[in-house]
Specification:
5 helices
């Protein structure tokens, strides 16, 4: 990993079979523990015949360390299911994600090492299938300009490296622009050049964008 915080690109499900046992992995993006618990409950209800529903979740901000991290082996030998799944999520620096691997036992014991490989492998394959996005933190800046200047500025923004998020038409036209912290000074200079220094951007706080 290069250290960038990531999220899954979409919710999804993937199935593998190992020595006649079925492993069905479900992943979903969630931003609170209650949503993760609800997803786990839905998976359990949808697969009542499964022998185990093992889980792992990471929710929060890895950059600040304010994270909720949990795993559950759900009856499998301790450390053979939930923890390996959690390690897969951590290695990929994923957050705001819950994973459930449901197992239907096929009659052949896998042993501790085999279980670790099965649960972590099922999750890794599922993550490969759904894909991931980078979570990039931006500053949201508000730029208010008269109507007669708005069209040209909008055009210039759409052809710039800065991300135009919204346009609000009122007494003035307010353009909402997302800029990374590293690009903030450069954007200020860019804006001054196009408005003769007459317009300043107001900081509206942080905004996370999810990018390929």
């Amino acid at each position: 990993m290069n250290g960038e915080v990531c999220v899954i690109a979409r919710d999804g499900q993937h199935e593998v079979e190992i020595k006649r046992s079925r492993f069905v992995c479900t992943v979903a993006r969630v931003d609170e523990v209650e949503a993760a618990a609800a997803l786990i409950a839905r998976v359990r209800k949808a697969g009542p015949g499964a022998n185990h529903h093992c889980t792992a979740l990471r929710i929060g901000d890895p950059e600040t360390g304010e994270m909720t991290v949990r795993s559950n082996d759900d009856g499998e030998p301790a450390g053979t299911a939930g923890v390996p799944m959690l390690e897969v999520l951590a290695r990929r620096n994923l957050t705001d994600v819950v994973a459930v691997v449901s197992r239907w036992f096929g009659g052949v014991k896998l042993g501790a090492g085999g279980l670790v490989r099965a649960y972590s492998g099922a999750l890794a394959e599922t993550l490969d299938a759904v894909g991931t996005l980078r979570r990039v933190r931006h500053r949201e800046l508000l730029v208010a300009v008269p109507h007669d200047l708005a069209g040209r500025l909008e055009h210039d923004l759409r052809n710039s490296p800065y991300r135009l998020q919204d346009i609000d038409y009122g007494t003035d036209v307010t353009l909402t622009v997302a800029v990374t912290e590293a690009d903030r000074d450069a954007f200020g200079a860019w804006l001054a050049e196009r408005t003769g220094g007459e317009v300043e951007a107001l900081d509206a706080g942080t905004r996370d964008l999810y990018l390929p």
